[in-house]
Amino acid sequence: MSEIFLKLHIEELDEGGYVATSSDMPGLVAQGRSISETLEIAHDVARKLIESFEEHGDPLPFGIRKPSKQIDIDIAVGVA
User: Fold this and answer.
1) Which residue of 3, 17, 32, 64 has the fewest CB atoms within a 10 Å radius of its CB?
2) pLDDT confidence tier of residue 79, bands split at 50, 70 and 90
3) Domains: count for the chain
4) What's the average model confidence in pLDDT over 5-28?
5) Which residues pair with 32 in a beta bridge?
6) Which domain holds residue 34?
7) CATH code of the domain covering residue 6
8) Are strands 9-12 and 29-32 parallel, antiparallel or unpaired?
9) CA–CA separation, 21 vs 26, rounded Å?
10) What is the predicted pLDDT for the residue at 1?
11) HEC string for the chain
């Protein structure tokens, strides 16, 4: 299994929780109670969208890319 990268935009909602969208993957919308939960849901949604592209023989959107040998990623860590 190969891995790919796409950009996510995460916003805090006024009513609580977070929503993630992606300019790289139209149709990706994920909502969760925490950033970590939102990322987990976004990961699942992205995988299902990619599987759908592949099943229908459609090319993946332009912004999706393969990782380089080194990457830097910010992660969300819950603290009390």
Assistant:
1) 3
2) confident
3) 1
4) 94
5) 18
6) 1-80
7) 3.30.160.250
8) unpaired
9) 8
10) 55
11) CCCCECCCEEEECCCCCEEEECCCCCCCEEEECCHHHHHHHHHHHHHHHHHHHHHCCCCCCCCCECCCCCCCCCCCCCCC
